[in-house]
Design goal:
Lipocalin, nine-stranded antiparallel beta sheet, 1 helix
Length: 99
Amino acid sequence: MNMEESDQSTLMLLSSWEGGWQSINGNPDVYIFQEYDREYYLLAYSYDKEYERGNFACYRIETEENVCYIRLGMNHSELSEEKYPHTLHITGWGSYLRA
């Protein structure tokens, strides 16, 4: 697989992940989208029922050698498909189901 095919398969994977994902581990839910700059982003959102407040954080999804990840400070959290349909895994955050 050449570099162009590799990039194309990564873009197809990212486009298949677009939309809402609900955490099954109680972590923030996420929404993956493509912005006008053609980059993909992950929006993490959670709601604190006690304080009735929502929290949002947006991360650019980066790719390197067919690996998709987001940067969290000095750490990287890898995004990967799980073996079950409509599931996503984010390293350090756990498993997600399509919302």
